[in-house]
């Protein structure tokens, strides 16, 4: 038993030396998880659209239409840049990027309101950037509901509620939006908790497979023997390497899951202990997955082809940008064997919704099952490829 623990220590020490003497591995293990979260979050900041230029085509030119325009200009997502004489002129403003939306108020807008008829205000919005379209459409809808309530209240005050009800007008439908987790409805707050888990997995696998590529190149140059290898059992080999990677990544995990949300005011409703307990099996399963993927790596550069290519695929399979129930059976099965899939689903609930570790028991147990599965595959591959003493 003492000999086995000594072998684990020697493998761990050897792996530390290989990591800190390889510039490529240092890039993936340290620079990538340090810089990528900052770069991604800065790209998505500011999280919501504010003061988007809007042109108004007012064909009514009445006090009611001017009141509507002032209300539009007061919206947090809109800023009225001016009145266009016609819709054709507004299109020219849009083509020259002087505005990103056009509001057309019809002729007879005031008269239709006075007669308790429906007045249609048209909104033309640039949908090339979904954030602009979503923010302005949501605010305009809320403004429409507020105006409708005011108009109905004025009618009730003038003619009385029984008479107004006898006119057959439909009652207003009140809405109340309560945003859970992502209270600001910002894109970074929505997507970054999941991307953080994917960054941890992909950077780990990239560094591990690059180390494997270096071992493969040394074996080819030395008749099938790695001169920097340690004579240890397969189990001691994978455990020693696991200890090395965990000692490196635990501090990086604290930086990624605690400091990054604090730096950028992302949702942070959970507890530090739950974060670390949940991410730990993600790190273990990602380490063993990287050791399993070594069989496909014959050169250092191969790691980029094996891992970087799969990053976008893993992002879609995680259910972050496309719901899991809408994914077909084959892709859902593939997603279930990727640690980041369960890491994204569980960590988003912890970070944004304030769930406890008990509430994310399903993804947590799946991560431990994947850790056991990939530990077995890594042990079998190391045992099969074990070099002669």
Key phrases:
abc type-2 transporter like fold; four-stranded mixed β-sheet; 389 residues; mainly alpha; 14 helices
Overview of the structural elements:
The protein has about 400 residues and is mainly alpha-helical. The chain has two domains: about 1-45 and about 185-385, no CATH class; about 50-165, abc type-2 transporter like domain (abc type-2 transporter like fold, 3-Layer(aba) Sandwich). It contains 14 helices and four strands. It has helices spanning about 1-20, 25-45, 65-75, 85-95, 110-115, 130-160, 160-165, 185-220, 235-265, 270-290, 300-315, 330-335, 340-355, 360-385; strands at about 50-60, 80-85, 100-105, 120-125. It has a four-stranded mixed sheet with strand order 2-1-3-4, sandwiched between helices. Strand 1 (about 50-60), helix 3 (about 65-75) and strand 2 form a beta-alpha-beta unit. Helix 2 (about 25-45) packs antiparallel against helix 8 (about 185-220) and helix 2 (about 25-45) packs parallel to helix 9 (about 235-265). The chain is elongated, with a radius of gyration of 29 Å. The chain starts with a helix and ends in a 5-residue tail after the last helix. Mean pLDDT is about 85; it is low at about 165-175.
């Amino acid at each position: 038993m003492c000999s086995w623990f000594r072998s684990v220590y020697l493998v761990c020490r050897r792996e530390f030396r290989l990591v800190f003497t390889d510039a490529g591995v240092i890039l993936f293990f340290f620079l990538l998880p340090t810089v990528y979260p900052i770069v991604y979050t800065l790209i998505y900041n500011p999280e919501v659209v504010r003061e988007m230029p809007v042109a108004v085509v007012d064909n009514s030119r009445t006090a009611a239409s001017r009141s509507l325009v002032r209300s539009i200009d007061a919206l947090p997502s809109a800023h009225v840049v001016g009145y266009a004489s016609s819709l054709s002129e507004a299109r020219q403003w849009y083509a020259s990027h002087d505005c990103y939306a056009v509001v057309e108020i019809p002729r007879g807008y005031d008269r239709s309101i006075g007669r308790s008829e429906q007045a249609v205000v048209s909104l033309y919005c640039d949908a090339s950037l979904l954030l602009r379209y979503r923010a302005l459409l949501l605010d305009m809808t809320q403004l429409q509901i507020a105006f409708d309530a005011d108009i109905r209240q004025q009618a009730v005050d003038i003619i009385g509620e029984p008479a107004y009800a006898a006119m057959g007008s439909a009652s207003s439908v009140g809405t109340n939006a309560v945003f859970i987790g992502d209270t600001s409805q910002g894109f970074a707050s929505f997507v970054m908790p999941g991307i953080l888990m994917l960054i941890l997995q992909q950077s780990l696998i990239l560094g591990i497979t690059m180390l494997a590529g270096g071992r493969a190149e040394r074996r080819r140059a030395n008749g099938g023997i790695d001169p920097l290898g340690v004579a240890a059992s397969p189990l001691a080999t994978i455990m020693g390497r696991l200890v090395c990677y965990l000692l490196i990544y635990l501090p990086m995990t604290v930086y990624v899951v605690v400091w990054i949300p604090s730096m950028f005011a992302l949702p942070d409703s959970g507890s530090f202990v739950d974060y670390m307990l949940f991410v730990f099996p993600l790190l273990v399963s990602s380490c063993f997955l990287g050791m399993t993927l070594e069989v496909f790596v014959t050169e250092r550069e191969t790691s980029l082809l094996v891992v970087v290519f799969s990053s976008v695929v893993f992002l879609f399979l995680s259910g972050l940008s496309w719901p899991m129930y809408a994914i077909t059976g084959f892709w859902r099965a593939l997603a279930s064997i990727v640690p980041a899939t369960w890491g994204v689903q569980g960590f988003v609930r912890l970070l944004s919704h304030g769930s406890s570790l008990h509430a994310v028991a399903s993804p947590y147990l799946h991560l431990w099952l994947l850790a056991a599965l990939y530990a077995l595959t890594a042990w079998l591959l190391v045992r099969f490829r074990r070099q002669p003493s």
